[in-house]
């Protein structure tokens, strides 16, 4: 009689050198984002000059809205980077939040704060952003991070 396979989280197989490289990349990206946010926030605080043309004011408003949108995206990336750094400390960095399998090294090299493996990311995109198996997804249980 064949044994039933149980799906468990894979043990990370990255070397200590690779883990340290990922840690350095995450910290470097975090620093770049902080600098971008700092720069954007200082440019957003510039006040309008008396007598400015309406077109200039409209252009300034567009730039301000674009800056706020970029800052929001950067804030989300910062959160993902911080979570990845915490996962490094816990020894679960590079494990997909949905299926528990190891996220491929090429994906982590491209996006070191990735939460999902390629397969689960594709499944979520096809499923309107929801995990294909919500019962297994660690996104729904933040205490397991």
TrEMBL record:
PANTHER family (alphabetical): RNA POLYMERASE-BINDING TRANSCRIPTION FACTOR DKSA (PTHR33823:SF2), RNA POLYMERASE-BINDING TRANSCRIPTION FACTOR DKSA-RELATED (PTHR33823)
Q: Which residues form the Zinc finger DksA/TraR C4-type domain?
A: 92-125
- Spell out the Pfam families in the cross-references: zf-dskA_traR (PF01258)
Q: Which UniProt keywords apply?
A: Metal-binding, Zinc, Zinc-finger
| The keyword Metal-binding appears for this protein | yes
Classify the source by domain of life. Bacteria
Q: Which GO terms describe its molecular function?
A: zinc ion binding
Q: Where are the zinc fingers (dksA C4-type)?
A: 96-120
The identity of this protein, by name, is DnaK suppressor protein
**What is the originating organism of this protein?**
Oligosphaera ethanolica
